[in-house]
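Journal club prep — side note

Before the paper discussion, L.F. wants everyone to see what a predicted structure for a comparable chain looks like in token form. Sequence:
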Amino acid sequence: MTKKNHTVTETGAAVIANPSDMKPQRDAGTYRVGESDDLVLVEKAGEPPSGDVYLHDHGLILVCTAGRAQHEYDGHTFQLRKNDLFLYMVHSVLSNIQTSPDFSCRQIWFSRADLWSINTFSSTAINDIADLKLHPLVHLSDDEAERLDTYFGLMKRRMSDCATPLDHDIVRSLCGTMLLEVLRLMRRNVEREKSLGANNTASAPSHKKALADFFIRMVEESDGRLRSVEQCAERMHITPKYLSNVIQEVLHLRPSFYIQHYTLKAIERRLRFTDMTMQQIANELRFPNASSFGRYFKARAGMTPLEYRMKYKGNIE
């Protein structure tokens, strides 16, 4: 295989040494609604990026259609072959990318807000983020690959002739259904690997697994109100250093990753699905004031809360 990148990044996506922000390409063989990068189909991917790359605004579904590839994803090495599906989640780092000369793939880029499409069509949500981060790769049967190819084709045709707002809604409906299909495949794969004893947490002592499970539940149930490792550690009656060590040993990611993930979910849900003011959201999530709330969100989402609301709230109306 041809090596494209020789840099190794720090695991966790919290502190990264000057990565480039990975964006969907805009050349021939790409499809989008208007000029937006919120949802992009790539029928023929170009050259893999060189250097460390960071997915800041997008998640990415990649299906290998030929050849082989290898790369590091948040510090863990994965190999891809034909009919492999890989789910790259927002706030992830890719490095040490290698591809064979005949490598090709299809890509579906979606904004973080489009994950809410799952909630539009089903009560199912991506709450098992730890499992999906640990098991992002699934090998598809020929029938499963064909099914996803059908979704891809339907979305591509609609995006090629997207003339009215209703066409836009149809594209997003197809995207939401496809995301549910991918989630079903990923969850099935996680259960299969666990049943075979392939779970990466197997070597961790049971008390550490219990602490990690409690941490994830506590952060999720706090609904954006716990935003530091220190706050979480205090509630668990352990030191922040011990909590960090346990989470990295069991879940292979920093606790700050999970805290930020669930905080952003809590904020985005209020911005998209309620008419709460910025001050009301800041008060409910226990920020000192609306200004600090705005700074927190912009630093992590790349836009102000108001810009996010104006950009995405109309997608569900």
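L.F.'s comment for the group: The CA atoms of residues 80 and 254 lie 25 Å apart. Keep this in mind when we get to the figures.
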